[in-house]
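Slack export, channel: ligand-projects

TW: morning all. Re-posting the request from yesterday since it got buried. We need the structure predicted with the small molecule present, not the apo form. The ligand is 6-phosphogluconic acid; the SMILES is in the block with the sequence. No rush, but it would help planning for next week.
GE: picking it up
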Amino acid sequence: MARQPNLFAFPSVDALATTLRAYIISCQTAGLHRHDSFKVAVSGGSLPKTLAHALLVPPSSAEDTVKFDKWEIFFADERAVPLDHEDSNYGLLKTELLDKIPEEMGKPLVHPIDVAHLDDTQELADQYEQLLVKSFAQRDSVKLPIFDLLLLGCGPDGHTCSLFPGHELLRETAAWVAPIEDSPKPPPKRITLTLPVVTHGVKIAFVATGSGKKEILKKIFEEGAGLPCALVNEGAGERCSWFTDTAAVEEVSFPRRGSL
Ligand SMILES: O=C(O)[C@H](O)[C@@H](O)[C@H](O)[C@H](O)COP(=O)(O)O
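GE: finished. pasting the full token output, ligand included:
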């Protein structure tokens, strides 16, 4: 049973945000202990808004402090568009979270894509991989970058990052960051962390809320079916935690937890 992911279900997004905050802060503490910074990868969708909800409230104690000046934020996936484009995950994070961080909470170091390479997604991916190589260089002889935390969403089809069901990218084992030119969800051109990088994170957290997720969550937890989110569950086991609301897990019989 030790290899199973954790499934947390909360009655409201408010309750979810409180526990998600405590979880993120425990990952932050571990990251600071390991290398005096907190290396996080984030995806798009509704996640940045939920993060703002969880993180931008005053701390209840010294231990409860979000130390944004120690954060290094990377993108789990990004669309090949300018940073101020409405499809940009960076743009979304900026509007929903970064621009709202009060000065006294500190400023994270954020790593957007290099927009000089928007016309060449292979180069865009390679450049982002080089950024990871530099950033994770001190990490002994590791063959993969090990994020302290990856914060991910789950699409209604079971995709996560820009790893889509049945796509050949799911079999990528060499690259850390890969291009995709035929994303079934627009826009088609993107880059994404690959499955080995995602599953090697110290911790991986999914945030999935609302009744629109109930069918796919049932499938992920009860059938697996090779869905990208299920592959992350299988690869990461107990290092993976799902933060959901009751509407999203209504049909899931997998054992749930209410607290960390
Ligand atoms: O580029 C994408 O396709 C999104 O970033 C995607 O990975 C997102 O995280 C999920 O679709 C969940 O989206 P919601 O959180 O909005 O349900």
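GE: first-pass observations. The pocket of 6-phosphogluconic acid is lined by residues 43-47, 77, 89, 153-155, 160-162, 185 (CB under 6 Å). The radius of gyration is 17 Å.
TW: perfect, thank you
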